[in-house]
């Protein structure tokens, strides 16, 4: 398998740290946690599919992904720190399922604004995995321009083709948490790639999604930006159409994380009051349930 990957991917890893001895679950001894950090730098080179246009040159897929894995006591992602209780629960859950994951990748699917990147970073931190955002990888591959610009210049079809190629490459790797684009689920070939790992659907109510997106603006959301009018109403209307088109595809995921269920369980009226760490805990719980149902975990 490693030889096969090496034929299409040039992988170089650098670890900038003093000598670290990790436990099997990926955690450092308590005395070392605040002194030692680990940085991975990955360079991947391959060629993305050509666009059938004389105005666009073949794109070379060159990705540099660097991240620091912080200890559980200061676990944070996207500026949202986990409380001590949340960090301890995350640690326990990761220790429960870690041995049964067997290095398989975790693919997060869900609507735009569902928190895939934020939750994904927490999961990668706690599991000792690397984190990849498909949108970012495509952006870097196409010269560093944004997803919105890619849609505007080359069209959605071009973006989807490159998104599929990114997933194809990542599917041959291990120990990754991957945040997919909201529309990745509509292409059957992407499910073929994601079946190499475990797919997790972050299911967020439309009202909450619309409020989140309207609050920060729709400029970076090419499927929402063209409509005029009240930000919340136009976002809710468009998201409703997209969810109707995609809900059946999202349901193909191996595990579902329902924010409505989590909120009801914890006594919250608004799902937006849930912390990313709490959502990550539920994700680990649902992954564990899937592994048990699949006969992998006992």
From TrEMBL:
This is shikimate kinase. It comes from Nepenthes gracilis (Slender pitcher plant). The keyword Plastid applies. It is found in: Plastid, Chloroplast. Transmembrane segments: none annotated. One of its GO terms (biological process) is amino acid biosynthetic process. Belongs to the shikimate kinase family. Pfam families: SKI. The lineage of its organism: Eukaryota, Viridiplantae, Streptophyta, Embryophyta, Tracheophyta. Its EC number is 2.7.1.71.
